[in-house]
Please model this.
Amino acid sequence: MYMINLPGIGGSGEQHWQTRWERAGLPITRFQPPDWDRPQLDEWMQALESAVAASPEPPILVAHSLSCLLVAHWAPRSRLPVRGAFLVAVPDPAGPAFPPEAASFAAPPDSPLPFPALIVASADDPYGSPAYARQRAAAWGTGLVDIGAKGHINAASGLGDWEAGQALLLAEHYKDGAAGA
Model:
């Protein structure tokens, strides 16, 4: 099982669970957009397209925050096969905390994702409410797991290596093969 890490704005620092998973030796590669701090949707979509095209097999997309919206924008436009997506802390582009520099990611499509996916949400995420996570899960045709009050499910949440997140990821049904658009 091959995975592509898709951090949100800023690129997920050293204590973020995504970075820790990379250091732990999981079969995971980080995609590389041109600018982590001034994200532009078209540039990030091209970086994702390149990362998926270079994958040795259809990957699982492991997205945090802004990259959850990236996956939703990218999926209907790409023809590359993807095994599934693990979407953590989906932000609400209409919410008061959404960063203005990420405006190009607003208005994600409401169409179902063309591959299995799971949204992982927190009851007290300042960037996306549980109601928004439920709305996205319904629109995108994904599963949804609320892990309780864990903030934005990032380094500040104190998750360390987030073994429970790894268990959720590995429990998903991506083993049946790739689904692609």
